[in-house]
Design goal:
The chain is mainly alpha-helical and 90 residues long. It has six helices and no strands. It has one domain: 434 Repressor (Amino-terminal Domain). The longest helix has 10 residues.
């Protein structure tokens, strides 16, 4: 079940410095959009949009998608911690 219309849509509005293409390469750049969408529990159309835009993901969205792919965000974006405001963490 895709959560595109819920949490991710709301989080997507605050853009950050994290490129979807970095996550896609980490997952496997040779995978088709449908397979990537299935792994991330998002729509194929969302994968297409992320790939063909210059938009960056917020830390919240990057964290969710990296986790869904089985990675810690710092495995995908090595400078992850330099962009996170540690005072916002619970």
């Amino acid at each position: 079940m895709s959560t595109d219309g819920g949490t991710l849509l709301a989080l997507r509005r605050r853009r950050g410095p994290f490129a979807f293409e970095d996550l896609r390469r980490r997952i496997g750049a040779d995978l088709d959009d449908g397979t990537v969408a299935s792994l991330l529990d998002i729509s194929r159309q969302s994968v297409y949009r992320w790939r063909h835009s210059n938009r960056q993901m917020s830390a919240d969205v990057a964290d969710i998608l990296a986790t869904r792919a089985g990675f810690h965000p710092c495995e995908v974006w090595p400078d992850w911690w330099s962009w996170i405001d540690l005072e916002e963490l619970p």
